[in-house]
Amino acid sequence: MTPIPNISNSQLAQVFNQVADLLEIKGEIIYKILAYRKAADAFNDLDRNVHDIWQEGKLQEIPGIGKAIAEKVDELLTTGHLSFLEKLTKEVPVSLTEILRVPDIGPKKVALFWKQAGITNLDELASAAKAGKLRSLPGMGEKSEQKILAGLEALARRSGRLPLGKAWLIYQSLSDQLSKIPGVEKVESAGSLRRRRDTVGDLDILVASRQPDIVMDAFVNFPDVVRVVGHGDTKSSVEFSNGVSAQLWAHPPERFGTALQYATGSKEHNVRLRELALKRGLSLSEHSLTRTDGSEILCSTEEEVYAALGLPWIPPELREDRGEVQAALAGELPLLIGMEDIIAELHTHSNWSDGKLTIEEMAGEAIRRGLKILAITDHSTGLGITGGLSVEKIPQQRREIEAVQSKVGNKLLLLQGSEVEIMANGELAFPDEALSQFDLVIASLHISLRQPSEKVTSRLLNAIRNPHVDIIGHPTGRLLPDREGADLDMDAVFQAAAEAGVAMEINAHPSRLDLDDINARRAIALGIPLSINTDAHASSDLDLLHFGLGIARRSWATAEQVINTWPKERLLKWLKARHS
DNA sequence: GCCGTTTTCGGCCCGACTGTTTTCAGTCG
User: How far is the CA of A312 from the C1' of B18 (A)?
Assistant: First the structure.
């Protein structure tokens, strides 16, 4: 029997995106290309492994997958090859696709440079532009050539996607500056920042103003702007000295709803809405909804936009074209978990390990934020750098927690927890009799994340199956923006977690956001409880909760599915049942 | 290439901005 190649959903998506890139350069009709890109997105967003769906013979039940693409997936999963792609790469050099990453260069220009100037990669493009050889090509000129040189430089200094937390801080500062411009009535984040994606490409910002020209002029002249990418009447985009790009729209207040809806995206969600609008005899744009007779419906709020299409307002976190429009039409949108639902913080550190505050100080901070339950989960030994709690000190820490508990009374329930290290050999850093002394145990991976998939997965499975473990902390161990998580077999992990009834964490720290939205949605689909925690090491960390909440909302989580919302009695009962 | 409470064929979202052009193509979101 031939082994089935192990191709993940995201690898599959990459293959079809590459097909789309090459077809686009080749000059294939745009709708075919869109179909491939849509299929790639569908694979990326799937809450199950494509493998399983393939084995069930249900590929074509995935929206956007038809006969032709299903056959290609079949070939890929059976043989590990795609003859269609192999044939394509013989016609179109793969190195051309790297040129597509240059701003202002799309498939048409790539094809032009390739066919008329023999350019096949970024180096050749740069040489030709510097030598002034591009300006004479049809449709090109001196300005276009300069723009390409600027684009190449921008590409070189572009710093990938921003982690959500950093994007949020930059937005706050830009928002302050924008609100001081005369005539600006409102400032709102848009794009992937407002949708709370874990990383953000460009910052998208919308302002309400009746004098958009003044706003645009002020914006492109902000300090730290190193490049004005575009400067129009209602839209401008700039690049700052730190490599971050931002895009600004300005629309009058009575059109703010359509404009915000448009700027928030996602693009795919917007396409879906516009299709729906057309079916209702309306054309949707950032300016308004237009009837067939040309008359306009103006919307100052997003609620009005969605209502005009017969829909309830869809929260930004859901707007990824992952079935939210269909759910809204059917009246089946989930009632997403909100900040007000969360009463427990279950993953924090005190000065008993590497936290900055005493247990009493942490308790005070938790009370100040309206929390009802706080678990102190200091690191175990085994994670050398942090000076973890030793087995001998567990009773001593218990006495301190009890002392603080008697001081705060019923304002806050304190739990003695542990963040126990999953060691490189797969054992937990504490023996079972030590773990049994805690009210709550989180098991986490911090070290040897680069082990082979089989090894690191088995470590995590071992932790999940330990009857003392209640939560798996930041399951993949990724660090945004650049450090990938461990190469885990998430199917095996989720299956084990579902069987053991262990909760999986959404770590709210913006450098983690782990689980991510797709994995969290898979967990929910399997009935695995989620736990959103800040992993606070200092008081200000407790304010990071909203980032984790954003990820949970993106995974369609309701309050019921997150143990941090459960009343005290229910949480304690759940813990007790697990430990008995 | 996908899809169907107008369709199994003929459609497939909408507009801003830029640069090259005399009315539009390419790129982007």
Answer: 38
